[in-house]
Amino acid sequence: MKSILKRAMCVGFALCLAASLIACGGNDNTESDTASSTESSKTVSVIDTIDIPSGSIYDDPNWSPYSSMPDSIKGSTVRYATWIDHTQTEGAVPLANIENDIGIKAELYLVPQVGYVNTIMTKMASGDIPDVFKSNEVTQSFPLTLQIAAPINKVSSVDLNDPRWDKTLLDTATIDGNVYLVNALGSPWTGSNLLYFNKSVFEENGFKTPADYYEEGNWTWDTLLKCAKDIKSLGSDYTGVSLPEKIFTDSLGTSFVKYDYGTDVFSSNINDPKLLQGYQWYADAREQGLLDGSTADFVKNKCGLVVIGVYGLKSTGYFMDMDPQNVGFTYLPSMEAGKSGRVSSIYRMYGIIDGAPNADAAGYFLRYWLDYNNYDLGNAFLSTEAGDFYYQIINTTANEKYFQFDDPLSTLLGNNDAWPWRNSVASKSSAGVKSAIDSLSNRIDTAVDLANTIVQDKIVADREKYK
Fold first, then answer.
1. Total number of domains constituting the chain
2. Which of 54, 89, 318, 393 has the lowest tally of Cβ within 10 angstroms?
3. What is the Cβ-side half-sphere exposure of residue 309, based on CA atoms within 13 angstroms?
4. Given CA atoms 357, 360, 362, 365 in this order, what sign does their dihedral have?
């Protein structure tokens, strides 16, 4: 077995989307591979860690995941069900180049984000079946997406031994021996949450920044509150921190429900002491008036701190209208100094739709779409530093991340998300948090039962289908 390959790859690509779109690729098997261009605007260091078995087919520098593509699917079209117009995102580059690069076409099958799974199920019932889906958040999340998913290991074009796949994520998506969702190491399409801070507000007023606290090993939720107090001391025009409570509890490794990836079972988590501790801390911070920040205030340099996802690192993201030099970022704090919190993450995965008319081509599409080598990373991020940090934070294994499924389970009860659960607790005083959590018990048990029914129904259906 070849030792783990750690490659810091400077990906500098020419400016694209002019007269034509040019995708710049790399060789997955090259230990040191640098792509560059004199026209490049930025370079992004991709920390790429893959494990290549010595002497295996993947160890051959001439190996390609597309070389075995049968002639029968070349020229065919894969339809990707999404709510995003990727002709206007970094996805425009692989969309423009996939046919020339590997011989298949890709088409966006646009559906609404809200009600994503239900919309696709309705389309499937009418016989209009797309090929690829995304599992993301709320009504687009697991386990809801399990209702439309085919076992990827049953699709002949998908080689799950390919070292490009994130094996730690594959383990979380394996149910009864079948793999239903995938993502790749270094994928441009993954989600984690982090803290952004407004450099100009901190530095111009001589305040210690979150990055300073992180470097000295004292970056905790309490020093974050110290940062919020510093910002609010500047006057009534300034707000503290924008902190979604679900991201906060994620960093503690807790939420209202939990999912056991080994047994494929959801269960209530309301008796977790960390959940009580987290919401009591949150109630205290709210009562101090420190959680009044917003992304809009941040963009206007009136808020010092925002906790939100990696989309803020993208050039088309939340802070695209700001001077990139004013946007600082670091990891989420921990409860105790010298320790690391969990990486709050979105369970963003991809799958092939059950009954997809072009499933084999869809397998090749996923391999291409999720490979960062097929993107213009130099223009995908707010700055070089933002791109570098993106790859630092996503390069954590699945067991270092925390995925919460409160939102999709709450939608099974007819809610838009888990806001009714969270708000009923977060709005209480610290003393009232315990009884508020306990009052949710019956609702959460019902949602858990419905989610487990989805999982078990899928297990039974696929055992019968593939026996």
1. 2
2. 54
3. 13
4. negative
Distance CA 16, CA 91 (A): 12
Q: What is the largest CA-CA distance in the chain?
A: 68
CATH number reported for the structural domain that contains residue 208 in this entry: 3.40.190.10
pLDDT at 396 over 90: no
Q: What is the rounded distance in angstroms from the CA atom of residue 261 to the CA atom of residue 445?
A: 19
Q: Looking at the DSSP assignment, which residues form a beta bridge with residue 134? A: 350
**276 and 290 belong to one structural domain:** yes
pLDDT in tens, 118-147: 999 999 999 999 999 999 999 999 999 999
Measured in whole angstroms, the distance separating CA 262 from the mean position of its chain's CA atoms is: 21
Asked whether residue 463 is domain-assigned, the answer is no
Identify residue 449 by its one-letter amino acid code: D
Distances (CA, A) of 219 to 51, 175, 272, 339: 33, 38, 24, 9
Chain mean pLDDT for the chain: 89
110 and 141 share one domain: yes
Establish if 354 belongs to a structural domain. yes
Say if residue 162 is in the same domain as residue 38: yes
pLDDT-above-70 percentage for the chain: 90
- The letter for the amino acid at 291 is L
Tell me what pLDDT residue 47 has.
Answer: 60
Cis amide linkage into residue 53, ω under 30° from 0: no
| 157 and 71, same domain (yes or no) | yes
pLDDT tens column, 59-90 = 999 999 999 999 999 999 999 999 999 999 99
Q: Give the pairing of strands 401-403 and 343-346.
A: parallel
pLDDT at site 45: 66
Distance CA 371, CA 186 (A): 7
* Residue 389 and residue 403 in one domain: no
CB 337 within 8 A of CB 362: no
Q: Residue written as tokens 């970056």?
A: 219
Provide the residue range defining the domain that includes 21. Answer: 5-186+348-396
